[in-house]
Specification:
The complex is a heterodimer of chains A (146) and B (207). Chain A has 146 residues and is mainly alpha-helical. Chain A has five helices and no strands. Chain A has one domain. By secondary structure, chain B is of the alpha+beta class. Chain B contains nine helices and five strands. Chain B is globular, with a radius of gyration of 20 Å. Classes of the chains: A mainly alpha (146), B alpha+beta (207). Chains A and B meet through helix 2 and helix 3 of A and strand 5 and helix 9 of B.
Chain lengths: 146, 207
């Protein structure tokens, strides 16, 4: 069972790191495109658009690196989950306000839709696993053998 | 082995020269006829793939491009290039593209006038295809005759096809799709850009 946990643990870390690294890379490559998406959400003040577009991708890259090297993994997973929740909320608000905007998650041409919301929610699951992994293990150990 | 190594060492400077000349080669590919404003060697180059019948393209042209032309292209800080990308779903956009390219062959002034008229009156001609009537209002009789003749010219249609092919090569799927070049850096933005955002971005480069 311990081996299975280790495999899932590593899959979650590598998967999330890959997603965050790719997401950060596409935004660093095209900051204006990400700024256009942020502006289209109609939620951020104009003065904050470019600072967010400039710095947020580097946070994603740093989180990806931290996930790979395993530094304070639970706190990093918490930060990852926080970022994902934040953007999930923003995307959901934009979608339910009826604004046609690009998700801005991985470059252009990705309109906010139930599909993008479901996809981003799926990314949350490995982060939640990494946060609650010790508790899941404890719970599994405490459960009486049948 | 030594000969091969010597040849390899000799080829290094030419390799560096080729890499250095790459942006220049890209700049030389610009068709100056398609420049709506600014000079080809401006610090920022904006290339737009647009469809005359698409509402987002209309908004982008009227709200953003016109201001960029006035405030940056006139000072040669930005070069604006327009490509036709008529979508199959729009009944009259190819005909509008042909009118636009026909006017482009007469000169930048006529081209801008026709573009302005087509975007400003989009809701009118989109219903019944009355493009000629819209164009007739902004051109003098002599230019209008030339444009009407050029619209039927096969080479104008070929120019539209060339733009569409170029768009397909650049993986354009939506209109407007905007490519912004700052030196050798290329950025693709799909679906339009608001002027304040684009202005802030251009200012960061040119000031």
């Amino acid at each position: 069972m311990a081996v299975a946990y280790k495999i899932v643990h590593w899959l979650c870390r590598i998967g999330l790191a890959g997603i965050f690294f790719y997401s950060g890379y596409t935004k660093i490559k095209a900051p204006l495109e990400f700024a256009a998406s942020l502006s289209a959400y109609q939620l951020f003040p104009a003065k904050l658009i470019f600072p967010i577009a400039d710095y947020f991708p580097w946070i994603e890259i740093l989180l990806a690196i931290a996930l790979l090297i395993g530094w304070k993994i639970r706190y990093v997973a918490l930060a990852v989950a926080g970022v994902l929740c934040f953007f999930l909320c923003i995307l959901a608000i934009t979608y339910f306000r009826g604004i046609e905007a690009d998700c801005g998650c991985f470059g252009s041409g990705d309109r906010i839709s139930p599909r993008t919301l479901a996809r981003d929610f799926t990314f949350l699951l490995p982060a939640l696993f990494l946060i609650f992994e010790p508790r899941i293990r404890m719970w599994r150990r405490a459960r009486p053998e049948t | 082995m030594r000969i091969a190594r010597t040849n390899l060492l000799k080829s290094i400077p030419s390799l560096f020269a080729a890499i250095a000349l790459l942006p220049l080669a890209a700049a030389q590919e610009i068709n100056t006829e398609q420049i709506l404003g600014g000079r080809p060697d401006s610090p920022v180059r904006i290339e737009v793939f647009s469809d005359f019948q698409c509402p987002a393209c209309k908004n982008f042209y009227l709200d953003t491009v016109r201001q960029v032309l006035r405030e940056y292209a006139a000072e040669d800080k930005v070069c604006v290039i327009y490509h036709e990308f008529p979508l199959k779903m729009h009944q009259f956009s190819r005909l509008a593209a042909r009118y636009s390219l026909a006017a482009q062959r007469l000169g930048q002034r006529q081209w801008r006038a026709v573009m302005e008229a087509l975007y400003s009156n989009q809701s009118q001609w989109s219903l019944d295809g009355s493009i000629d009537a819209v164009v007739a209002k902004v051109l003098d009789l002599e230019d209008l005759k030339k444009v009407r003749k050029l619209v039927e010219d096969a080479t104008v249609n070929d120019s539209v096809n060339r733009d569409v092919t170029l768009g397909n090569q650049k993986e354009v799927n939506h209109t407007p799709t905007i490519f912004i070049y700052d030196g050798s850096k290329e950025q693709k933005v799909v679906g339009g850009l608001e002027y304040p955002l684009l202005k802030e971005y251009i200012d960061r480069i040119v000031k």
